[in-house]
What does this fold into?
Amino acid sequence: MDVEKTLDELKSQMGEMRDSSKNKLSMVVFSGDLDKLLAAFIIATGAVAMGLEVVMFFTFWATPALRDRKKKGKGKDLFGKMFGFMLPKGAGKVKLSKMHMAGMGTGMMKHLMKKKNVSSLEEMIALAAELEVKIYICEMSMDLMGFKPEEMIDYPGKEFVGVAKFLEEAGNSRIQLFI
Amino acid sequence: MADINVDVTMDLKGLKCPLPVVKVSQQVKKMQVGQVLVAETTDPGAHADFPAWAKTSGNEIINTVKEGDVSKFFIKKLK
It folds into this structure.
């Protein structure tokens, strides 16, 4: 009978521990590939449904996916202009990591996704905003690639931050991912 | 089946992952404890996803009915 009692005590302690640990998912989004970005947003929105708070930290090649195709950055230097020209201008322009085939593969995939009613990356970003997924953008990547805050999408509550901010969030999270 | 009182029915047919689970979780938030939601879906992943979601969110799937391609999940809000 003692064993049962101890078990009950342990169970209640476990429950308390679970409640006290923060219910959060932190994600580094590093890749600028369409497929990986889609995966990131599917996990992010799914996690909100599972009751988690979600934080996405966009860095390096993922940064240009958050550019607004209709906006322009002002006062860029030569390298900034070059990066701006060479990197995708927003979520509608990112490519598949495999089978891009000069645009044919990516086009075909988008066609298939539409046909099979799979949400596009733009729709997933809008859904994430609706579900209050937090987006942080790496300040250093912005600076390195010459992107200006005014050319990024209007995402509610987006912030430009450094690595310490991500690590603070990751430290308070139950799940951390790098995509 | 006749004795289950359904409060809300959601037509999620044609929606793909992650939308069925996202939409159901949003709807359940608006409901009262004890109310029952029926989610109608054609997503094959739903058979794994709804039980996983219910377990994590602390709700209960009281019945599952499969009619051809459409599966109906009866979800009771527990908290």
The CA atoms of residues 35 and 77 of chain B lie 6 Å apart. Chain B has a mean pLDDT of 93. The longest helix of chain B spans residues 19-30.
